[in-house]
Amino acid sequence: MISITDLRAAYGPLPVLFGLDLNVARGETLALIGANGAGKTTTFAVMTGRLKPQAGSVSVAGRDIAGLTPMDIVSHGLALVPEGRQLFPSLTVEENLVVGAHSRRAGAWHLERVYEIFPTVAEFRKRPSTALSGGQQQLVAIGRALMSNPEVLLCDELSLGLSPAAVDVVYSALQKLRGAGLTTVIVEQDIARALAFSDRFACMRHGRIVLSGSSTAADRTEISNAYFGMR
Amino acid sequence: MLETLINGALVGALYGLYGLGLSLCLGLMRQINLAHGDFIIFSAFIALQLMTHFGIHPLLALPIVAPIMFVVGWLLQRFVMERTLGRGEMPPILVSFGLSVILQNVMLELFSADTKSLDPGALGTAAVNLGSVAIGVLPLLTLAVAVGIFALTAAVFGSTRFGRAVRATSDNEAVAQLMGIRTRRVFANAMGAALAISAIAAIFYGMRGTFDPSTGPERMLFAFEAVILGGLGSIWGTLAGGIILGIAQAAGTLIIPSLGPLVGHIVFLIGLLLMPGGLFTKRIRA
Amino acid sequence: MIMASPLARSLAAVGILAAVLLVIPLAGSRYAILLTTEIAAVLSIALMWNLLAGFGGIVFMGFQVFIGIGGYTLFVASNGLGLPPFPFVVLSALVCAGFALLITPILFRLSGAQLAIGSWVISEVIRLIVYHTSALGGGGGMALTTVRGIDRSVRLFATYGTSALVLLVALLACIALMRGRFGLALRAMKDSPLAAEAMGVTIRKTQTYVLLVAAAIGGAAGACYYMVVLQVSPTAGFSMNWMAIILFAVILGGIGTLEGPIVGVAIYFLLRETMGNIGSLYFIILGLLAIGVMLLAPGGAWSLLKSVIRIDLLPIRRTMREAGQSA
To answer: What is the pLDDT of residues B13-51, one digit of tens each?
Structure first.
């Protein structure tokens, strides 16, 4: 479904990705883990069109999307749940969800279906998005991404800034999506959480994948070594 | 005296319309345009040209001038103001100020410094009697048109897909793009709308008073005062702010005929001191 | 290029300028002296506006309020007391600083573009008040009557000297403020108010301080300008044209640097002297130039020059000293 080959990217003169190779099968959930600065968010930035890569390719369902604008990428079926939620403060909860459907991409997701999956969000539908707790906002952010009828869902640091209880709520809500056929990539600081939730994992270090494999068969020591770069 | 104050309130509706265009820029798009008043005057001059060459009534020039100014606004945003974004607060201020100077002098070259007005014909002198006061039909029409435009604007920016897109873009452009919003186009359209609204205001302004190339900046100050008094981010607040300003100025004229604007400014400054957020504070920032 | 310390280079540059200012009245024509007096006043004003905006981040669109108040204070004091006007520039400075302090509560309710327009409103208020005050000459303004008793040559040199002195004070003030701890604080504040606050810099106090200095020296310069013109009126003294001149000079020269306004004012006067009589076309060209610079070369003429010549004449940037290099 997602195929990234030899991706190189930089922020101005500062190179971050040094030949990233990554494949995600259709319907699979992949956890992208790695220390700060490893290049996880940069990978998402390239995939969502925020950053133009210097070399390499990114394709989704066979279509090459590297270098397209974020607007075009959304219509190709890629949606992002941004780090820190980043809901629109001037819009109500419902408006935040509706604006997610701005690209008018055809699909099965609509407002009522989102409210079905996240009933607590439905209660707050007319309130300004800033009135919600962090965990609630995270659900809205996920719902907003779903409204664009994506085939691929990217989740950036879902647990950041949330209490453990709130993170439980978010992940159990996300669990409901498992059967929906979405291909999901999550970037997650909490390794245990990441491995528990995903089918496969990929560990990044210095802009490259250094270890990958099945999440259930994952060896903790191997992962720590890869994560921290120890032999 | 009551008549003066009521007329002041009606002028205030016009100030509200000046402010609406600026409110869209400043409040919604979070962008400044110091040439705002000069574009109003420019619209009035275009209307005047149409009237002189085709012999039409100013209200008939309105549906021609408004779309023209929409295009002007669109181009302005897309090719000039767009380039000033993302580098801090100074470039938009300075570039729009430069634009203001250019516009004033271009109008000076083309139309001379003579004061002009848009002859409304019989509409200008018609009046109705409400009890003991006589109110002009034109001011009442201005109020009606203003309320109508405000309602339309509030509806468009509050409930439509386009309106949501503008609000989302002004909150967070990067994430708005992730929603598929073509942010540049959206802002260009919003700017076009702002200038089209200002064009409508210009025609009513020209019908009730005189204008010349140098009267732009003062309109911008009134627009600004209406927006801030009403509360940045609140569309209807701008109308309220404009009406308050109009009444304040009218009160000033009761003291000395030329004292209107000064009293308006002072009321604005006092209002700013006492209610910094304006009447209807609405802006929630991330 | 000599590797003297940045501070020494700044002071040396000011020294050279002072020398130039000293030579002009000795060698120059009457016209040259008058023009230099005017240039010195306008440059002081531009430097002060640049200090406020470029370093302090306060875009004060109504700066002409200080110019007008400065002019009127000088005229009123000089005429009222029947004394020669020259020392009263100090009074102009003090009155302007006092006025600046007075408006800070209102001014600081706003920020950014709103502060810019708000300051413009304040300037309009003063203009209209003066316009309606017959004691100040109303719309017609005032003439500086006390100069009539002074010999023309004395008047010429005294006005020149006062204006030159104000310019030197302006330059030294800029260097002192910008190089010191204060300057760092200002720049930190401008880049990120939150970060500056966290570092213990009291934003309000710093901004107020800069405003007072800029107002005072700007007011003194305004007084000098109107000492040359001999007439001050609300339309002229509080005119938006002042902002146009300041902005064009500062933009064309390069905002935020010390040399920028100097280069910009030079360009402005060069253009004026060579094409000033083509009327409104002149302003259209200036406006287009300013917009062009803002969009294409935001560092202005000075940054273009610098990239060619590669020096900082009046450097205000702090750089880390390499190990072993002396101060």
So the answer is: 999 999 999 999 887 788 889 999 999 999 999 999 999
pLDDT digits (tens, 9 = 90+) for B237-248: 999 999 999 999
Tell which residue, B7, B1, B2, has the closest CA to residue B137: B7
Please say whether the beta carbons of B28 and B232 come within 8 A: no
> DSSP assignment, residue B25?
I
Q: Which residues of C touch B108 (CB under 8 A)?
A: 280
Average confidence (pLDDT) over C274-280: 73
Of the partner residues C114, C281, C291, the one whose CB lies closest to the CB of residue B95: C291
Q: Cβ of A102 and B180 within 8 Å?
A: yes
What is the least distance, in Å, from the CA of A102 to any CA of chain B?
6
d(CA A191, CA C64): 61
Q: How many domains does chain B have?
A: 1
Three-class SS string for chain C? CCCCCHHHHHHHHHHHHHHHHHHHHHHCCHHHHHHHHHHHHHHHHHHHHHHHHHHCCCCCCCCHHHHHHHHHHHHHHHHHHCCCCHHHHHHHHHHHHHHHHHHHHHHCCCCHHHHHHHHHHHHHHHHHHHHCCHHHCHHHCEECHHHHHCCHHHHHHHHHHHHHHHHHHHHHHHHHHHHCHHHHHHHHHHHCHHHHHHCCCCHHHHHHHHHHHHHHHHHHHHHHHHHHHCEECHHHHCCCHHHHHHHHHHHHHCCCCCHHHHHHHHHHHHHHHHHHHHCHHHHHHHHHHHHHHHHHCCCHHHHHHHHHHCCCCCCCCCCCCCCCCCC
**B275: nearest CA partner in chain C:** C109
pLDDT for B198-218, tens place per residue? 999 999 999 999 999 999 999
Domain enclosing residue B55, as ranges: 2-274
Give residue C153's pLDDT: 87
Type of residue numbered C2: I
* Domain ranges, ordered by start, for chain A: 2-228
The answer to whether residue B7 sits within a structural domain is: yes
Assembly ipTM: 0.91
Query: Which tokens go with C261?
Result: 């306004």
Q: DSSP alpha helices (H): ranges in chain B? A: 2-23, 36-54, 58-79, 90-111, 137-159, 161-171, 173-178, 183-208, 216-230, 235-255, 260-274
- CB-CB under 8 Å, C298 with B91: yes
A2-228: which CATH topology?
Answer: Rossmann fold (3.40.50)
Q: In this structure, what CATH number is given to the domain that contains residue B230?
A: 1.10.3470
CA B88, distance to chain mean position in Å, is 25
